[in-house]
Design brief:
Layout (H helix, E strand, L loop, with lengths): L44 E7 L6 H15 L4 E8 L5 H11 L3 E6 L4 H11 L4 E5 L10 H10 L4 E5 L6 E3 L2 H18 L10 E5 H7 L10 H11 L4 E5 L1 E3 L8 H21 L4 H8 L15 H27 L4 H24 L8 H29 L4 H27 L12
Parallel strand pairs: 1-2, 1-4, 2-3, 5-8, 6-9
Antiparallel strand pairs: 4-7, 5-7
Length: 438
């Protein structure tokens, strides 16, 4: 039996969450979309493996995937090798596998791009569930059943493997770990996403959902995944996360710098498209029959005026504490280290006070994240105040009164910026959902 996992990665109560097996799948599930009922003639699952110059790894990947599906998946399936303009023997070896294994199909594209390959194959597929995975099989194939099960049952619309969800086991170097976490943190700050891992090469989507979303996904490269997931989340679709066992491929040919720059451009483009209405989110939401899930943490004052008043009160207390601490430290050290220590101490207290009194967030849930992001906001304040001190001391030899006056002005500017970031990013209501990945 394929057991559905909850979004946080735990096994759900069978009485509360749909499960899928060969006996029960033919009975409609009590969900908005309903279970997928195999008709015996078309594949239920189509797994796409995008490749570019992968002649060495292709055969092992396809054979292992074919064996896994043959022994564990009870319905018809297809494996589609999407060759992206390979210049080595990748296409030749793919054709050989196609001739040998009835469930393998090959599609050749004249241009590179993972997003281009997935868009082309998924748009033309007749399968009910569409999936893809990287050819290096960094993700353990044991996660394939939990990935597909909630889509078959109608419990979810999209399923993603996550290397950052609780329960995932990941083996990779610190550089890749830092880049992955940094990218997903950036997405949370800019696009207010709630899914935990945008770029894991292990995803699946219901075909009826893909048919609605794909025409509005324009990226042809690595940002394709992120764009699809953000669009799905904004239209109220349910994204199921599966914690995976993942081992980094040391021979990965991904150009990290080029990919990072392309992702940054994608974030800017998608943010602009969401803001100006280029992407018809409301229309898609209506077509898909989904209402957005509005989540608001209890006790959060939603009035901008009330939040400003509370933030101002906390800010006044923090500024007085900062000036007092700076003055005390300044008697024994130079201005820059005194400023750093005073800001660091008051920043932690400021974030904790605003968390509780301004935005009404209580308890330990996400407290670590709030403090971490609060320190990032503190870094911007440090840049403003330290920069002001540097300019002041570079132009003249200021007295203590002038030094304090400049710091007050710089702190006022930093305070405005801090409020905007705390309200629109750190404590945004969409990110306070207790069901979101921790």
């Amino acid at each position: 039996m394929l057991t559905v996992l909850t979004q946080a990665g735990h096994t759900a109560d069978p009485a509360a969450t749909p499960t899928v097996d060969a006996m029960t799948l033919t009975q409609p599930a009590t969900t908005d979309r309903g279970a997928i009922v195999p008709d015996g003639t078309t594949p239920v699952l189509d797994v796409v493996v995008p490749v570019h110059n992968e002649e060495r790894d292709l055969e092992d990947c396809v054979r292992r995937l074919h064996a896994q599906l043959t022994h564990t998946f009870p319905y018809r399936f297809r494996i589609t090798v999407a060759d992206n303009a390979s210049t080595d023997r990748t296409l030749e070896r793919a054709r050989a596998l196609e001739a040998e294994l009835a469930e393998v199909t090959v599609v050749h594209l004249a241009e590179k791009g993972r997003g281009r390959a997935l868009h082309a194959v998924w748009s033309a597929s007749d399968a009910s569930v569409l999936a893809y995975m990287d050819v290096d099989l960094s993700t353990d194939l044991a996660a394939l059943a939990p990935l597909v099960a909630p889509l078959l049952s109608g419990h979810s619309d999209i399923a993603i493997g996550s290397r950052l969800a609780r329960g995932a086991r990941v083996v990779r170097g610190p550089k890749r770990e830092l880049i992955s976490r940094g990218y997903n943190l950036l997405l949370r700050g800019t696009l207010a996403i709630r899914f935990s891992d945008a770029q894991c090469g292990f995803k699946a989507i219901r075909a009826d959902v893909a048919a609605r979303l794909l025409p509005h996904v324009t990226d042809t490269g690595w940002f394709f995944d992120t764009e699809l997931l953000v669009l799905a989340e904004r239209t109220g679709l349910r994204i199921h996360e599966v914690p995976v066992d993942w081992v980094d491929d040391p021979d990965s040919r991904v150009d990290i710098v080029a990919t990072a720059l392309a992702d940054l451009r994608g974030i800017v483009r998608l943010t602009r498209a969401m803001a100006n209405g280029t992407v018809p989110v409301r229309q898609l939401r209506s077509q898909l029959g989904r209402a957005p899930i509005e989540v608001r943490a209890g006790g959060v004052p939603t009035s901008l005026v009330r939040q400003l008043a509370r933030f101002a009160a906390v800010g006044v207390a923090s500024t007085l504490a900062y000036l007092l601490l700076f003055s005390l430290l300044r008697t024994g050290m130079s201005a820059q280290p005194a400023n750093l220590i005073a800001l660091a101490v008051t920043a932690v207290a400021n974030t904790a006070a605003n968390r509780r009194f301004t935005f009404g967030v209580r308890g330990r849930h996400q407290a670590g994240r709030h403090q971490f992001e609060g320190l990032l906001v503190f870094g911007l304040g440090l840049g403003l105040t330290s920069g002001s001190l540097a300019v002041l001391n570079g132009l003249t030899a200021p007295g203590r009164a002038l030094e304090l006056a400049v710091l007050v002005a710089a702190n006022l500017a930093a305070t405005v910026l801090r409020f905007l970031l705390l309200r629109g990013w750190v404590f945004h209501p969409r990110r306070l959902d207790p069901r979101s990945p921790r």
